[in-house]
Design brief:
This protein is of the alpha/beta class. It has one domain: Undecaprenyl pyrophosphate synthetase (3-Layer(aba) Sandwich). A 6-stranded parallel beta sheet has the order 3-4-2-1-5-6, with helices on both faces. The longest helix is centred in the N-terminal third of the chain and has 21 residues.
């Protein structure tokens, strides 16, 4: 261990020691951004960047487990990403599939897919379904939402479509639905139905926008934008995000 790693380790323990676990967010959404830029800066390939980002996920979940986070949503592939050329998209899908398989095989997490399955390749669909089936019966462990083929606007459109189909099957007229429609009706048809909304959304790489991530659910979330690229995200960066959230949380309503 070099001196820099030692200093960071000591600082991380100091921040963690001062962390108020009562003020830790229960649901964290993470926009895993900066894989390609990290690879470019490191002299590696895009595929190496995506693999390094995938390898970081298990570390993050370990940190979340240590700090009593209950739900983590990982944005791994957006609907826009599906328009990338095959020479980039296909290796990325393979990395995602292997990562999801690894999360399911780990035994500690409950895996849930968040996104539109129908727009994904058949092999990816199968991996996501199998991971969710294999871990769905677990009574404990962090719930890990893997957002693959995910877009915030797409989610809301899918929720409204599902709501309309449900009431059509019940024989409800459009006029009757319009009279009773409220926020809860739409929430019940989101990809994350039944889950708490994210308390904290973290985006790495220095970009300060949501890019459509959990548009409906993040209405009251706190946001934390971190300059570091996702593959270089450290435990101390995670703890800083929690510390920042706790400080804002304590001031809420004053």
């Amino acid at each position: 261990m070099n001196l820099r790693d030692l200093v960071y380790g000591l600082y991380a323990r100091r921040v963690e020691g001062r962390l108020d676990h009562e003020a830790v967010p229960k649901h964290i959404g993470v926009i895993l951004d900066g894989n390609r830029r990290w690879a470019k800066a490191s002299g590696g390939t895009t595929v190496q960047g995506h693999q390094a980002g995938a390898d970081k996920i298990s570390e993050l979940l370990g940190w979340c487990e240590e700090t009593d986070v209950e739900v983590v949503t990982l944005w791994m592939l957006s609907t826009d990403n599906l328009d990338r050329p095959d020479n980039e998209l296909l290796p990325l899908l393979t990395i995602i599939e292997n990562t999801v398989k690894g999360l399911a095989a780990d035994g500690r997490w409950r895996v849930h897919h968040v996104g539109n399955l129908d727009i994904l390749p058949g092999r990816t669909q199968q991996v996501l379904k199998e991971a969710e089936h294999a871990t769905g019966g677990k009574a404990s462990g962090i719930l890990v939402n893997v957002a693959v083929g995910y877009g915030g606007r797409q989610e809301i459109a899918d929720a409204v479509r599902s709501l309309l189909m449900e009431h059509h099957e019940k024989g409800t007229t459009i006029e009757e639905l319009a009279e009773i429609l409220d926020i809860d009706h739409i929430s019940e048809h989101l990809y994350t139905r039944g889950q708490p909304d994210p308390d904290l959304v973290i985006r790495t790489s220095g970009e300060q926008r949501l890019s459509g991530f959990m548009l409906w659910q993040s209405a009251h979330s706190e946001y934390y934008f971190c300059e570091v690229f996702w593959p270089a995200f450290r435990k101390v960066d995670f703890l800083r995000a929690l510390r920042d959230y706790a400080a804002r949380h304590r001031r809420y309503g004053t």
